[in-house]
Amino acid sequence: MNKKITIGLFGYGCVGNGLFQILNRNELPFAIKKICVKNINKQRDIDASWFTNNKNELLLDDSIQIIVELIDDADEAFQIVKQALLNGKQVVSANKKMIAQYFNQLYALQKQTGNTLLYEGAVCGSIPAIRILDSYYANEQLLEVAGILNGTTNYILTQMADASIDYKTALQKATLSGFAESNPVMDVEAFDPVFKLQLILAHAFGLIIPNHQILRFGIQHISSTDTRFAKQLGCKIKLIARIINSNEGISAYVMPAFIQATDALFNIQNENNALSIQPRFADKQFFSGKGAGSFPTASAVLSDLGAIENKQAYSYTKLIGKTQTELGVSVFLKVYMRGDNISNVCQIMNLEKHWTEGKQQFAIGSIALKDLLNVSDKCIGNFFVAAFSVEQTLASGQISDKSELGVFSIH
Ligand SMILES: NC(=O)c1ccc[n+]([C@@H]2O[C@H](COP(=O)([O-])OP(=O)(O)OC[C@H]3O[C@@H](n4cnc5c(N)ncnc54)[C@H](OP(=O)(O)O)[C@@H]3O)[C@@H](O)[C@H]2O)c1
User: Fold this and answer.
1) How far apart are the CA of 209 and the centre of ligand 1, in A?
2) 42 lines ligand 1 (CB under 6 A)
3) With a 6 A CB cut-off, is 38 part of the ligand 1 pocket?
């Protein structure tokens, strides 16, 4: 084999370890030279001579061509990636928070230096999402992108629905199985899928949107009443990240949603992720696979390494010449709400049904996305909201999936 491409690796945790094993156990054209970690004294499964805690040992080494950044600190990761690009290196990362937060700077740095940053592992783990949206659909209008982008919450929701256990027990199970971190806030409150949606918005729609502009509801207040209600409707509740390209502009949200059995997302179970894309001419496409984990995420990093070897970079085609800088918020969503006092929370348009059970109030109706954005801030206590469908005409004139519900009750 020809001379291998030399890699400097930052991070030897879940993903870094997976990448090390893949590169060292297979005949591949990449060789890790050194690994930078935070705690140099930590016990590792490989010889201590691999490690340093001095980032300049990697960043200033002229023999290192590619920096792979796999650490868990977004701000420090940005400093590493910035310095690597300025020092003439190509970079691969899987850090969605860092890329979402520093998107403008990272885009400018690539233009300024002519060096490449790839981050396929940042969005759906092993599913090739970014490159398809960025390159394959560079010139085709997308009408909708929707998906399950967070494995932890999908695991919890699957357990609640299938094993009929409550949220707390399902979260404990997720933690014990290694699918939830000890502090699961980024996942259960849906910050993580919002970061991923920001990357999709940039590549698929040419929009760089700060995270506070994206409607975000997590699953932290879900109760067994909600999952039972979904079952009665023949649905499952999933945490859905969705971008809709309609006459009202491009709207986006991350929130729980009732998914019908006819929807491919219905069968995405446990820690798996999925992405559904609706291009204007190609029509619906569906991708599913492991959204996280050591080897699945390292597989995406490996693919990025190959892309860099082949001198590929993101096209960012849809960003060029884009004038829209804000999301559309006039779109109406049909939602189910439950809480201690939902009548005080917001104005529901077209109230279809409302009822109470003990102290809990329930309502189903349509609400403007901009009104729901105000609710996010007030979302305290026991408030749970889930979307049914988007009652909106899509840009092509196609009507999005509407779920017409009959009369129902909760037992
Ligand atoms: N885990 C997944 O399934 C997954 C999936 C998709 C994307 N990602 C992303 O991939 C990245 C890595 O995730 P992970 O799960 O592998 O993290 P992790 O298991 O928590 O490991 C983090 C690693 O980063 C190192 N580190 C932290 N700060 C550092 C610094 N300032 N300089 C050098 N090294 C530093 C740590 O060093 P020590 O070992 O010394 O503590 C550790 O080796 C994150 O951005 C994550 O969002 C992860």
Assistant:
1) 25
2) yes
3) yes
- Token couple for 287: 């991708």
291 Cβ closer than 6 Å to some ligand 1 atom: no
Which residues, in sequence order, are CB contacts of 300 under 8 Å at separation 6+? 94, 120, 121, 125, 126, 128
Q: Is 380 helix (H, G, I), strand (E, B) or coil?
A: coil
Is the CB of 234 within 6 Å of ligand 1? no
The alpha carbon of 12 and the centre of ligand 1 are apart by a number of angstroms equal to 7
Q: What is the pTM of this model?
A: 0.93
Mutational test site, ligand 1, from 32, 34, 37, max ligand atoms within 8 Å of CB: 37
Cα Rg, the chain, nearest whole Å:
22
Q: Which atom of ligand 1 is nearest to the CA of 98?
A: 45
Q: Which residues pair with 353 in a beta bridge?
A: 364
Q: Compute the distance between CA of residue 403 and CA of residue 120 in angstroms, rounded to an integer.
A: 33
User: CA–CA distance from 265 to each of 26, 122, 262, 288 (Å)?
Assistant: 34, 20, 9, 9
- Distance in angstroms (rounded) separating the CA atoms of residues 266 and 205: 26
Which of 144, 103, 148 lies closest to 123, judged by CA?
Answer: 148
The low-confidence residues of the chain, meaning pLDDT below 50, are 391-411
15 Cα nearest atom in ligand 1: 16
Ligand 1 pocket residue status of 71, Cβ below 6 Å: yes
Confidence at residue 396, expressed as pLDDT on a 0 to 100 scale: 39
Phi, psi (degrees; rounded to nearest 5) at 117: -120, 125
Please tell me the distance from the alpha carbon of residue 216 to that of residue 327, in angstroms, as a whole number.
14
Quote the tokens at residue 53.
């805690």
Q: Whose CA is nearest to atom 14 of ligand 1?
A: 14
Q: How far is CA 317 from CA 147, 195, 346, in A?
A: 22, 20, 39
Measured from the CB, is residue 10 less than 6 Å from ligand 1?
yes
Amino acid at 259: I
CA distance 94 to 14: 12
Residue-wise pLDDT for 299-308, tens only, equals 999 999 999 9
* pLDDT for 410: 30
CA separation for the pair 107, 287 (Å, rounded): 27
